[in-house]
TrEMBL record:
<dbReference type="GO" id="GO:0006886">
    <property type="term" value="P:intracellular protein transport"/>
</dbReference>
<protein>
    <submittedName>
        <fullName>AP-1 complex subunit mu-2-like</fullName>
    </submittedName>
</protein>
<dbReference type="InterPro" id="IPR011012">
    <property type="entry name" value="Longin-like_dom_sf"/>
</dbReference>
<dbReference type="GO" id="GO:0030131">
    <property type="term" value="C:clathrin adaptor complex"/>
</dbReference>
<dbReference type="GO" id="GO:0012505">
    <property type="term" value="C:endomembrane system"/>
</dbReference>
<keyword id="KW-0732">Signal</keyword>
<dbReference type="Pfam" id="PF00928">
    <property type="entry name" value="Adap_comp_sub"/>
</dbReference>
<dbReference type="InterPro" id="IPR018240">
    <property type="entry name" value="Clathrin_mu_CS"/>
</dbReference>
<dbReference type="GO" id="GO:0016192">
    <property type="term" value="P:vesicle-mediated transport"/>
</dbReference>
<dbReference type="InterPro" id="IPR028565">
    <property type="entry name" value="MHD"/>
</dbReference>
<feature type="domain" description="MHD">
    <location>
        <begin position="113"/>
        <end position="265"/>
    </location>
</feature>
<dbReference type="InterPro" id="IPR050431">
    <property type="entry name" value="Adaptor_comp_med_subunit"/>
</dbReference>
<keyword id="KW-0472">Membrane</keyword>
<keyword id="KW-0813">Transport</keyword>
<keyword id="KW-0653">Protein transport</keyword>
<feature type="signal peptide">
    <location>
        <begin position="1"/>
        <end position="25"/>
    </location>
</feature>
<dbReference type="InterPro" id="IPR001392">
    <property type="entry name" value="Clathrin_mu"/>
</dbReference>
Length: 265
């Protein structure tokens, strides 16, 4: 049988995958190799050569649950954690995961207090010319959730979009409540500034395509709901500038930073 080798470089470590030539899509294999370091970090800690050697048995067990008979099964770190060091309960966990339409969340989850935390993290990449003017600006963002909810809750997240800022406005649960309402500030379909949207597997993609609302049953614990990019940014000046002042008579240069005002930023 002819085999092909696919390699990926992650954090100075080479990851190698061997698969039949005509069975697997190369993009799927590369995507899995790119996700492995993050899955390992969330399940076992730092992704490093030393940590891999110290946790080789657990890592091998993790890969066995991740890939079964050459087929990718479960990639959610929250679920994979339940497989590690649970020899008596592993068969029950595997059965409950593979026989459900929501493999990233197990049944029977109970918390003493229902809580949900949302973090919106954005990174700005700016290219400046020699005179300090902006040539190109790009925003890369992600929405991180910490979910501590009992049962099997279905949540809906609506994005409120302004000219410069994209942020979630409100979370709605499928459980009826007098105080529950959903406010749509702006329709994301009318102001299409988000690009390259990458969702967690829990998101109902068809629902988002038609309703422009992110509907999902969250995993238990911490996870990344989505990643996005904003390339259509209208910023006249950089968010901050660096000024180097070199005196004529003394070799004592000064470096100062100046932030743009809130209107420009």
């Amino acid at each position: 049988m002819t085999r092909k080798f696919i390699t990926g470089l992650q954090m100075h470590l080479i990851l190698l995958a061997v698969c039949p030539e005509k069975t697997f899509d190369d993009v799927i294999v590369l995507s899995l190799l790119n996700e492995l370091p993050e899955i390992f970090e969330q399940s076992l800690g730092e992704f490093s050569e030393e940590n891999i050697k110290n946790n080789f048995v657990l890592l091998y067990q993790l890969v066995e649950e991740l890939i079964d008979d050459g087929m990718i099964q479960v990639t959610d770190s929250v679920v994979l954690k339940k497989f590690i060091n649970q020899s008596k309960e592993t068969s029950n966990v595997v059965s409950s995961v593979l026989n459900t339409s929501v493999p990233w969340r197990t049944t029977g989850i109970v918390h003493r207090k229902n809580e949900l935390f949302i973090d919106v993290i954005e990174k700005v990449d700016t290219l400046l010319s020699a005179d300090g003017s902006v040539i190109q600006i790009q925003v890369g963002g992600s929405i991180l959730l910490k979910s501590y909810l009992s049962g099997m809750p279905e949540l809906q997240l609506v994005l409120a979009v302004s000219k410069h800022v994209t942020s979630p406005t409100m979370i709605k649960s499928n459980r009826p409540s007098k105080n529950t309402e959903m406010v749509v500030v702006n329709d994301i379909s009318k102001i299409n500034v988000l690009e390259d949207l990458r969702f967690h597997q829990c998101v109902r993609l068809n629902y988002f395509t038609t309703k422009k609302i992110i509907s999902f049953i969250p995993p238990d614990g911490e996870f990344e709901l989505l990643k996005y990019e904003i390339n259509k940014c209208h910023v006249n000046s950089p968010l901050f500038s660096v000024v180097i002042n070199i005196p004529e008579k003394h070799l004592d240069p000064e470096v100062a930073t100046h932030t743009a005002d809130s209107k420009q930023a």
